[in-house]
Design brief:
The protein is an alpha+beta fold. The chain has 2 domains: about 110 residues, Rieske [2Fe-2S] iron-sulphur domain (Rieske Iron-sulfur Protein, 3-layer Sandwich); about 210 residues, Naphthalene 1,2-dioxygenase Alpha Subunit, Chain A, domain 1. About 25% of the residues lie in helices and about 30% in strands. A 7-stranded antiparallel sheet has the order 1-10-9-4-3-2-5, with no helix packed on it. Strands 11-17-16-15-14-13-12 form a 7-stranded antiparallel sheet, sandwiched between helices. Strands 6-7-8 form a 3-stranded antiparallel sheet, with no helix packed on it. The radius of gyration is 23 Å and the shape is globular.
Length: about 375
């Protein structure tokens, strides 16, 4: 008997990218139980340094304690729910602006006006609600799941590989941040980032002046998608590098950490990062960070950031916004993914992996890591 012919794997249905109910489900589910980028540890150099931000609709702040740890708390006073801090700054203790309830940097309630007059008041029982936090090579990540497994379990070998590609990573500070808003679902933008099937046609500066597309490949490592490729021939590179400076100086690599962050190392060991912040079902804020040792200005990094912003970033905005409009079309039917058994640049096996994670996050209501 002849074996039945294998059927192509088709892309996700449009509703995963266009249905507000699915977006709401992701905000209250997936994004509350996965590791999310908060900021760079260099913004918290001294005890009492803090910055505030929002993850999955929750207001949070991260702060450096006196013993050097970085802790993250929900940005809400345990008295009557006023927000504790805004923006960034430094404080010796955390004082609520509403009634001056005061907390230690480690979260314990220190004092409050007239609280001693309250019968049975137990100051030791009141503490700010803490959020799981990791300092990952100088990058602060948080997870709203109190039982979250460490990032090393989610993204095996990624930290060690990253240190090998960026030997100076512990000394880096941000030198440039570029934020853009894309009129598309956050997953459309991430899918576009996670395949290079479109690169040669749509990113000539990247494909001809940074990497060799024919060597590009993407493979999963746990909940990490690892991008690898060789750099372009040195006489075609759009900026100078010293290929002999270390083992990986002539390579490009990227570590996409599901669901919304990526480390990207350009040839010459230049680190930049992506992080995605979903805004609504059809809008996402995408931030690109560039880093140098000590945050010192670098003409090479500046030129590379400008080149990237004026070419790849602008090109991708047009692509993802067109896809979002297409997903709203009555004429669209999900097409088959191009899955080459040999993988490589012209295969969408990484998109298949991503879409499986996306489907699981919505359809099963189970944590994506088990």
């Amino acid at each position: 008997m002849n074996k039945p012919e294998a059927q192509p794997v088709h892309s996700l249905e449009p509703r995963y990218y266009t249905d507000p109910a699915i977006f709401k489900q992701e905000m209250s589910g997936l994004l509350t139980r996965t590791w999310q980028f908060a900021g760079h540890a260099s913004e918290l150099e001294n005890p009492g340094d803090y910055f505030s931000y929002e993850i999955a609709g929750q207001n949070l702040f991260s702060i450096r304690t006196r013993n050097g740890d970085i802790k993250t708390y929900y940005n809400v006073c345990q008295h009557r729910a006023h927000e504790l801090v805004s923006g960034s700054g430094n404080c010796g203790v955390i004082v609520c602006p509403y009634h001056a309830w005061t907390y230690e940097l480690t979260g314990e309630l220190r004092s409050g006006p007239n609280i001693k007059s309250v019968p049975g008041f137990d100051r030791a029982a009141i503490k700010l609600n803490e959020v799981s936090t990791e300092n990952y090579c100088g990058f602060v990540f948080v997870n709203l799941d109190p039982n979250a497994e460490p990032m090393g379990e989610w993204f095996p070998n990624a930290k060690e590989e990253l240190r090998a590609f960026v030997p100076q990573i512990d000394d880096l500070k941000p030198v440039d941040w570029v934020g853009v808003e894309e009129q598309c679902n956050w997953k459309v933008s991430i899918e576009n980032y996670s395949e290079c099937y479109h690169c040669s046609l749509n990113h000539p500066a990247f494909a001809n002046g940074v990497v060799k597309p024919e060597t590009y490949d993407i493979q999963p490592q746990g909940y990490c998608l690892r991008h690898t490729t060789e750099c372009q021939n040195l006489d075609h590179m759009s900026y100078p590098i010293d290929p002999d400076s270390n083992e990986h100086a002539s390579e490009y690599s990227s570590w996409f950490l599901w669901p919304a962050f990526s480390f990207q190392v350009y040839p010459g060991n230049v680190l930049n990062t992506y992080h995605w912040r979903p805004v609504s079902v059809d809008r996402v804020a995408v931030w690109r960070g560039w880093y140098t040792v000590g945050g010192v200005a670098s003409e090479i990094v500046r030129q590379l950031a400008v080149q990237d912003r004026e070419t790849t970033v602008e090109e991708d905005i047009r692509l993802v916004e067109s896809v979002q409009r297409g997903l709203m079309s009555r004429g669209y039917r999900p097409g088959p993914l191009v899955l080459d058994p040999k993988n490589g640049v012209n295969s969408e096996h990484s998109v298949q992996t991503l879409q499986q994670w996306m489907r699981e996050a919505v359809d099963t209501e189970a944590a994506p890591h088990s």
